Amino acid sequence: MLGLLTVGAAVTFAVVAVRYQPGPPTVPDQAILHLDFGSPILEKPQQGVFGSAGGATMADIVFALDKARTDERIVGVVATMTGAPLSVAQAQEISDAVGAFRRAGKFSLVFAEDLG
Questions:
Q1: 8 Å CB contact between 69 and 101
Q2: How confident is the model at residue 68 (pLDDT cuts 50, 70, 90)?
Q3: What is the pLDDT of residues 32-53, one digit of tens each?
Q4: How far is the CA of 112 from the CAs of 5, 32, 51, 87, 91, in angstroms?
Q5: 41 conformational bin, left if phi > 0, alpha if psi -120 to 50, beta if neither
Q6: What residues does 47 pair with on adjacent strands?
Q7: Checking DSSP bridges between strand 31-37 and strand 74-81, what pairing results, if any?
Q8: Cα 60 from Cα 42, distance rounded (Å)
Q9: 3-state SS class at 6
Q10: Is pLDDT of 71 > 90?
Q11: Contact 40/85 with Cβ under 8 angstroms?
C-alpha cells in the first residue's frame, strides 16, 4: 500500500510539474536591456552542490549584448554600477560590446552613485 501511494504521489508531482511549467519569457516591442553590475563578474560558471551557483559570467554579458544588438525589439541598454569590482580587462571587453551595440544605432546609459 505504501508503494502504491508513493508511485501515485510521484506521478501526481510529475503531472503538476509539467503542466504548470512556465513558458518561455516574452520580450515586448521597444524593450530595454538592463545590466546590473551589483556582484562580481565571473570568468567561468561556479558549480555548487546542486549545479550552477549563479552569477553572470563575462561570456553571458557579452552574449546578451550581442543578441540585443541584433534584436529589433531591444532599443537600448541601461547598466547600473553598484560597487562590484571590475578588472581593466573586464571593463574593456564590456566597453567593446557596448560600442558594437551603439554602432547598431541603439542607445546606452550607465548609472553609478560612486565610481571610486
A1: yes
A2: very high
A3: 999 888 888 888 777 666 655 5
A4: 56, 18, 32, 16, 14
A5: beta
A6: 52
A7: parallel
A8: 9
A9: helix
A10: yes
A11: yes
Which positions ≥6 away from 57 have C-beta within 8 Å? 41, 42, 43, 44, 45
CA 58 to chain centre: 11
| CA neighbor of 78 nearest in space, from 100, 105, 103, 111 | 111
- Burial, 107: exposed, middle or buried (Cβ in 10 Å; 0-12, 13-18, 19+)? exposed
pTM assigned to the model: 0.69
Residue recorded with cell 546606452: 108
Distance CA 84, CA 79 (A): 12
Of 116, 92, 100, which is closest to residue 65 (Cα–Cα)? 100
Q: Which of 82, 86, 105 is nearest to 95 (CA)?
A: 86
Looking up cell 534584436 gives: 71
